[in-house]
Each structure stands twice: as C-alpha cells, then as structure tokens.
Amino acid sequence: MLSPKEQYRIITKGVQTLVNEEELMQKLQKSYDNNKPLIIKLGLDPSAPDIHIGHAVVIRKIKQMQDLGHQVVIIIGDFTGKIGDPTGKSKGRVALSDEQVRANAKTYCDQIFKILDRDKTQVRFNSEWLAKMTFEDVIRLASTTTVARMLERDDFQNRYAKQVPIGIHEFFYPLMQARDSVELEADIELGGTDQTFNILMGRMLQKSVGQEQQIAMFMPILEGLDGVEKMSKSLGNYIGVNEPAEVMFKKVMEVPDSLIIKYYELCTDEHPDTIDAIKAQLAAGANPRDIKYGLAKVITSLYHSEEEVQKAISFYDAAFSKKAIPDDIPELTIAEGATIGSVALSFVEMKFVPSKSEFIRMLKQGGVQLNGEKIGFAEIDKALADGDVLKIGKKNFVKFIK
Amino acid sequence: MLSPKEQYRIITKGVQTLVNEEELMQKLQKSYDNNKPLIIKLGLDPSAPDIHIGHAVVIRKIKQMQDLGHQVVIIIGDFTGKIGDPTGKSKGRVALSDEQVRANAKTYCDQIFKILDRDKTQVRFNSEWLAKMTFEDVIRLASTTTVARMLERDDFQNRYAKQVPIGIHEFFYPLMQARDSVELEADIELGGTDQTFNILMGRMLQKSVGQEQQIAMFMPILEGLDGVEKMSKSLGNYIGVNEPAEVMFKKVMEVPDSLIIKYYELCTDEHPDTIDAIKAQLAAGANPRDIKYGLAKVITSLYHSEEEVQKAISFYDAAFSKKAIPDDIPELTIAEGATIGSVALSFVEMKFVPSKSEFIRMLKQGGVQLNGEKIGFAEIDKALADGDVLKIGKKNFVKFIK
Predict the structure, then answer these.
(1) To probe the interface with B, which of A129, A133, A141, A143 has the most B CB atoms within 10 Å?
(2) Backbone angles phi, psi at B234, to 5 degrees
(3) CA distance B147 to chain A (A)
C-alpha cells in the first residue's frame, strides 16, 4: 500500500471539489494504519445505458482508488428506476420493469468493467434495503432534514421560484441516495458537480445516525471535442468507451490543444509526476500535436488491446499524417504568387469538386488539408510553395509545381 | 329515513363551512334513493385524552348524522401517535407505546360514547393500513401533491416565512389523514376550522385515486364561559363532558347571554325548529336567564341521567336562586340611606368575615349575592332596601330591616 500522502496525491488529481481535505487525509491514515480499505461509493442511474469518456471521468477516478487497494461499491439505483416518477412528469423517471432495470444495469456494468476490475468491484442494487422500508422508517428518514434545506437545491429552488410544481416524492430521491451511503457506511462518494447536493445529503444522514461522514468528491465537467460544450452524445462531441480503437484514436487527436492536460488528468490514470513532466514539455515548446499523439495512445490503450491500438495508430498515420500522401498523385503547375483561392477552379476541372463554391464550403468545414494539416478559409489567400500537397475531401490529392 | 332536504337542514345546523353544499345534497339524495348510509369520518388524535363540550361540538354533529341513520367511523390516529415526531421538536408528537395509545384511545372513546351510540359506531386504528405501506406506496402517496401546495397550509407558511424549520416528515401528517379517507371511502369528514387543510387534502387524494370526494364540514370554534376565548382547559373557561351534573348545570348558567343561541346550535341536538322558536322568544323579550335555565337542562341531560339532572336542578335552585334563602337568618336593622359599604363592619362583628377589607375582597371576587344575584364592587354604595338579603361567602346570610 502506498503511503497516505502518496495516495492523497493520486486521489485528488483532477478533482474539482473535495469535502473535505482534512477528513480525507485522516481516513487514508486510518485505513493505512489498520490495513483496512476505504469504501468507495458510486451510484448509477440505470436509465442511461451508453457511456462516453466524459461519464468515465468519475469511474476512472474510482479505478485509481481501486488500484490503490480500496473497496469500490457500485450502487445501481434500481429502486428508483422501478418506481419511476408516479406523476409521469419527469422524463428520466419512467417506471421500468425488473427485467429492464437488470438489462440496463448489465449494459452499464459491461462498460464500467472496461475500466474497473470486475473481481474487485461490488455491485449492489439499492432495492435490497429501500424496498424493505416501512412508512415508519420513511418518516424517520424524512425527519432528518427540512423543507428549507431541500429547497436549497438549485433545481428545486429554481422551480419553486418559477412556480413549477415540485412533487413531495421528489424530496425522497436525495434522501434515498443518502440512505444508500448509510447502508454501505461509505467513506468516499464520487459524482459530477451536479451531484453536490445529493452527496452532501449523504454526509448529513450519516452524521444523524452516528456514522463517520463520507468524503464528498466532485469531478469537473469534461468539455467535448469542440472544446466548449460539455461532452454529450446529443452534441456529437463525444468519445464513446465502446468505440473502435481507430475512431477513438482519431477523436483524441481532434481534442483542442488547450485541453490536453485536462484530458490527461481526467481521462487517463497517468501518475501526477508523468502529467507534470508533460506540462513541462509543453511549456518548453514541444509540438502539442506530438503530445496529443501520446495522449491518444494512452486513452485508446485504456479501452483496447495493444494489438488494436497498434492497428489504430497505423490507420491514423496512413490516413491523417504527412506520410500518407500517395506516390502517384496529379501535379499542377502554378505561377509565382498563386494562392489556394486563385487555383481553385482547377479543382473543378480535375473533377475533385463540382464547383468553386463547393470547394470553399469544404475548406470552411475542415475538408481540406495542406501537407497533412487541416486548413480553413483563413488560408485561402496563402501563397503556395513548390511541392505543396493539397488534399481535398477524402481521397483527392494534388501536388503544386512551380 | 328523513327526506334529504330535512336531513340537510339538520346536518348543516351550526356548521361554519361546507365544501360543498351541492355535493352534500347529491350524496344525501343518493343515500336516500339507494337506502345506503353515508360514511361519516371523524379522526381523533389520541394525545389529548380529556374532552370538554367545545371538543364535543364535532361529535354532537356526528351524533346527529348517526341519529339520521348514517354510518359513523371514528379513526384513532394511533400510527402517528406511535411514531411521534422523530425530531422530538413537536410537543404534541411524543412517541407513545402501543399500551399508551390504546389506553388514551379507551379514555377518549369512553367520553365519546357519552354522545355517540357505541353499537352503531365503528372505531378503527389507522395503523391497520398505514403501518403496512412500503416505501414505494409512500412515494406514490407523496407524488399526489406538491411542495407549493403543502406550504399553503397556514402553519407551514408562517414557519417557512419565519425560517422556523419544517421537517420533511411533517408533510406526511396531512397525507396520512387523507389516506384514511381513501381507506374508508368517506362521504363526509368533520373537523374544526383548524382542520381545513387536512380535510381538503382528503378530497384531493380521493379524487386522485378515482373516488367520489368527501364533503368537508367545518364546525365553528366554541367560546368558553368568558364569552371571548376559545373554550380550553388551560384557560379554565370550559365545561367538561365528564363533570358532575351540578357543575355542568351551574357552568351553563354562567354562559353569557349573547352565546345562548350558539350553545343551543353547537352543544345540543335540538331541532332547528326548536332553536328558531327560542330565538323568537328572546326577540320577544323573554328573560335570557330563563332561556339559559332551559339550555342548562338540555345540555346536562345530554351527559347525565334524568335523576342526576333533577338533583342538579334542585342543587342549583337551592344554592343560586332567590328561593334559596333559609328561613331563620340573622336580621340587621339599618338606617335610611345605609349602603353595603356603610354596614360592612357589622359583618365583621357577626363573624362572617375577619375584616372589612376581606369583605371587599370577597365582593370583588364575586363571593357576595344580593337577593340571590351575584354583585360586584360597583354596588358597594348601593342603598339597601327593607327586606334585602345579602349572602356572604357560602353560608352566611343577613336580612336588612329598616
């Protein structure tokens, strides 16, 4: 087992908020002294079965703690899933059958176990304890918090202010999640920052029953390939954990340079020392493309075999690198001072594009590469040099000769 | 069975608010047509075991419906009683043992059955259905209403505004009461005006499960003997249903004249026609004291045997009426213009009081009667007439002779 200090460094890498540092250090020390693993809780809602590396941020963090020897427990929120929202107003809370819940949970777990070690992970369904609760138990649970406290939660606050109805039963979803923590005697619970209220409620409930309070650990939101929006399937800016190695490798290469370090921190299990070294290289002027190449290799390796990764790299090199220019490509003799714009009509003659305006559209949309690098509309007036190779669309190449 | 119209007249006598008239008329018609009694619900909190005729207002109303042939069901809120308030903050909600709840319920019922017909009354404990509810059932129950709706209740609204904590579990007390109405398929629920929110919640819940909605019937608050404050044990302005006939009779005689009709409406089962006749007598100038004498007889008869009532009347007449002056009482010759104050020292000489100031204290506190009528300090300078009889304390009489 690593020393508590070393563990602390790995555990807190990339974490956005921690409640709180001191308690975490104490728990790690105690765990180390007694040789007793901490209980790490992650609650999953079985309604969204497909995960991408944005979702995986918390799972990777958990994996790092698993590798440090701690006990990971995945809670499948099947009780909530089976009840759904009796008012039928909340889309995410349609009542699911037992079979649906189990099926969703299986799909989910199959993906999670691409990251976590299946043999070292406990999976529990919260209906195990929640379904047994009587009205009296529920009253006791409800009595641990107040209406005012509940209405502090952002979404409740907004809805209450805007007079959008909040069903009384909705107050129970945070309480159920908190009850799960008590059942597990969880030491650490992880979530995205949108889980702040619910995870802190777990601390509250543990305290009220005399348990040691869990550490609340919140991971930042991961921006997608556009570098701006939260990674999401519907925005198309995501990298799915189930995507083939070639797709994954290529997508990582599209990550904006400004996010390289964040992706290293949140989407890989690299040691903080390694990440520090990479920061130093970038600061010293290393080509971000080269660093990203390494990142793509690391991330792809997390989800694919070495063989698949090698194939993905070869594929990428062939399709997207300078070397990938075929030997026998058409040549075009140009005058001194010729620009991409000034020779564009030739591409129509060569049947590469149906019209100049179509070429410009492709240029704007990133479908044109100069010497293996994607270029945009800003480069339309760039002077061409002898030997420059332009790639238009997926397979049309032209070499300029002066 | 009386016609629905006649029943309606009796049922609505003295009622403060009815939700709503039209539905009540429909229910009475349907009950009459199908020869099927209505289910009349009264919920009782077993925490306050001693009842006075202020509490009895709703029970008398129920008794009138029982006499009309409807089915009365008393719900003992033992489930709530046994849970209490888990936060321990609400005084009225201390968790009671099974034995305590049963014992309180028995005391309560013994008093209720001084009014209701024991054989025609169903008594049910709501733990019968509430204790069986699972977390899932509770969620469904909670989903029938909203936080905003709940916070409309006066006491919640005030506490929320003043930032006095409201436990989430407190939202369940109205819901439990509503659930009781669903269990009973209640047609009418009665309560004081302080029960408005809870009883209307019963209507809401019945509607949400597809039942016909109960009629909500609210009885006014009965002022006590002071004519101002709500009748209450702690204020000492009450008439207990367990009090001896003499005490009860005497206390009714102390009711302010302005409340005679209200007491007739709320504390007796007299027919509306009878009450109309009494109103007419009063309007025609009848002595309110005589009317009250009749009221005292009616009310005392509701809780005591004819023999006891006769004894109480004799006792009252002997102690509080003019006739009650014994034959052989000391006489005191007084000068023309003598007042109670001017002859007061004689009462000290006669050993009726230890001092004049003590006599004045008794006068101020209502311990002195002139010709059988209580007098106060304002009458200290009243000129005495030949033959006037003064009663000082409980047994000392003096007759003035000029």
Answers:
(1) A143
(2) -70, -25
(3) 6
CB B205 within 8 A of CB B182: yes
**Do B74 and B44 contact (CB within 8 A), yes or no?**
yes
Which DSSP string do the residues of A162-211 spell out, in sequence order?
TT---BGGGGHHHHHHHHHHHHHT-SEEEEEGGGHHHHHHHHHHHHHTTP
Tell me whether the omega of the peptide bond preceding residue A34 falls within 30 degrees of 0, making it cis: no
CA distance A134 to B132: 7
- Residues of B whose CB is below 8 A from A156: 147
Using a CB-CB cut-off of 8 Å, the residues of chain A touching B135 are 79, 130-134, 137-138
Q: Which residues of chain A are within 8 Å of residue B101 when distances are taken between CB atoms?
A: none
Nearest-CA distance from A237 to chain B in Å? Answer: 37
Chain B residue numbers touching A208 (CB-CB < 8 A): none
Chain B residues in contact with A165 (beta carbon < 8 A)? 146-148
| CB-CB neighbours of B237 under 10 Å | 20
Above pLDDT 70, what percent of chain A? 95
> Is the Cβ pair B85, A137 closer than 8 Å?
no
Q: Quick: pLDDT tens for A203-260.
A: 999 999 999 999 999 999 999 999 988 898 878 899 998 899 999 999 999 999 999 9
- Show which residues on chain A lie within 8 Å of chain B, measured between beta carbons: 79, 82-83, 85-87, 130-140, 142-143, 145-148, 150-151, 156, 160, 163, 165-169, 171-172, 175
Structure tokens at A37: 């693993």
Q: DSSP string spanning A1-55?
A: ---HHHHHHHHHTT-SEEE-HHHHHHHHHHHHHHT-PPEEEEEE-TT----BTTT
Across the interface, which of A85, A145, A163 has its CB nearest the CB of B168? A145
- Beta carbons of A169 and B86 less than 8 Å apart: no
Helix (H) or strand (E) holding B189: strand B188-192
For residue A81, the chain B residue with the least C-alpha distance is B136
Distance CA A45, CA A93 (A): 10
Give CA–CA dist B172/A171, Å, rounded: 12
Please tell me the distance from the alpha carbon of residue A297 to that of residue A258, in angstroms, as a whole number: 18
Nearest by CB to residue B138, choosing from A85, A135, A156, is: A135
Each residue's pLDDT tens digit, B346-402: 999 888 899 999 999 999 988 898 877 788 898 888 888 888 889 998 888 898 988
Q: Which of A130, A140, A172 sits opposite B142 (nearest CB)?
A: A172
Helix (H, G, I), strand (E, B) or coil at B179: helix
Q: Is the pLDDT of residue B179 over 80?
A: yes
Q: What share of chain B is helix, strand, coil (3-state, %, to 5)?
A: 50, 15, 35
Q: From chain B, pick out residues whose CB is under 8 angstroms from the CB of A163.
A: 148
The complex scores an ipTM of 0.71
What does the radius of gyration of chain A's CA atoms come to, in whole angstroms? 26
Q: What is the pLDDT of residues B49-68, one digit of tens each?
A: 678 999 899 999 999 999 99
The whole-angstrom separation of Cα B52 and Cα B235 is: 12
Q: Out of B134, B137, B142, name the one closest to residue A168 (CB).
A: B142
Which of B130, B150, B165 comes nearest A135 by C-beta? B130
Query: Using an 8 Å Cβ cutoff, are A123 and A71 in contact?
Result: no
Whether B307 shows a pLDDT value over 80: the answer reads yes
d(CA A251, CA A242): 13
Tell me which amino acid residue B46 is: P
Contact partners, residue A215, CB within 8 Å, separation at least 6: A18, A19, A20, A23, A24, A27, A187, A188, A189
* Of the candidates B265, B269, B179, B217, the residue with the CA atom closest to the CA atom of residue B23: B217
Q: Which of A132, A145, A172 sits opposite B139 (nearest CB)?
A: A172
The DSSP result for A86-120, as a single string, is TTS--GGG----HHHHHHHHHHHHHHHTTTS-GGG
